[in-house]
Amino acid sequence: MCGIVGLHLREPSLEPRLGELLTAMLGQVVERGPDSAGVAVYGDPRLCPPGRTVVSLLGTSKAEVEAVLPGVRAYDADATTVVHTDAASVAAALPDARVIGSGEGFAVLKGTGNPVELAESFGLAGVTGWQGIGHTRMATESAVTPEGAHPFSVGPGQCLVHNGSFANHATIRRELRAQGVEFDSENDSEVGARFVAHQLAQGADPEKALRLLCERFDGFYTLLVSTSDSFAVVRDAIACKPALVAETGAWVAMASEYRALDVLPGIENARIFEPEPEEVYVWRR
């Protein structure tokens, strides 16, 4: 049992409130995943300046980054350090650091502990932007570590959060490794993220990538996948794991529980529905 929240803004006047709203949503699903949490935010000018590549790292710090990469700006956010440079420079200067997100216009922040406290340590309430996703984790098949927290971001600008479990993840991991895909963990959710990233890299759009995932993966799952221009939701064939979508002219939101949607402005006028089994829903910027 984990908690998922996501917010895709259509109304630019709401962008200064992205972090405030995402923080409120995350706080409503703490009981679903009390051991760790993570978020991905799109469009915040401090974390991800326009036109700059951003790399999110674990296993280092602002001080260490700025010592080995003079002139490069970095920010600490709990266990995560956000760096404004390219991934190749980071890999060369900090070979022991773990990359948990890389691309333009977005940043990934992860940590362990109470999700409300983590949101505060991330400075999430002050974040601006046009899209954000979040996850509270209850670990079932791998250790409670920042690396095991969601989102899993393994493609440029792409993130995946997952509630559920993939029964055949070991088989699909072997198949992807045979095609040259590398993995950072034994987490089943990473397999889903790598599969989607692999499909996108081969030219599929998010809708096709998630349809292919439904064909290939066994188990129970609700997935929220974000990219630099889209926000997508899909559930397994029996829709075992909870999910609600709310949509207005100003925003689209998804959450594991209604109470996480009830904090949003205009929720009383939203169209609210449960995603149908194996139907892929995609909203684009």
Describe the structure.
The protein is of the alpha+beta class and 285 residues long. The chain has helices at 18-27, 62-68, 87-93, 115-122, 169-178, 188-201, 206-216, 258-261, and strands at residues 3-9, 36-42, 53-58, 74-77, 80-83, 98-104, 106-112, 131-137, 152-155, 158-166, 219-227, 230-235, 244-247, 251-255, 271-273, 281-284. It has a 7-stranded antiparallel sheet with strand order 7-2-8-1-14-13-15. It has a 5-stranded antiparallel sheet with strand order 9-10-11-12-16. The longest helix has 14 residues, at 188-201. The model has no long low-confidence stretch (mean pLDDT 95).
Describe the structure using short key phrases:
285 residues; alpha+beta
Would you summarize the structure shown here?
The protein is α+β, with helices and mostly antiparallel strands and 285 residues long.
Work out the number of β strands.
Answer: 16
Helix and strand run: EHEEHEEHEEHEEEHHHEEEEHEE
**Average pLDDT level:** 95
Largest beta sheet: what is the strand line-up?
A: 7-2-8-1-14-13-15
**Global shape:** globular
Oligomer: single chain
Radius of gyration: 17 Å
Helical element count?
A: 8
Low-confidence stretches: none
The largest sheet is: 7 strands, antiparallel
Query: How far apart are the first and last residues' alpha carbons, in Å?
Result: 30 Å
Helix-strand category: alpha+beta
What percentage of the residues does DSSP assign to strands (E)?
Answer: 25-35%
The percentage helix is: 10-25%
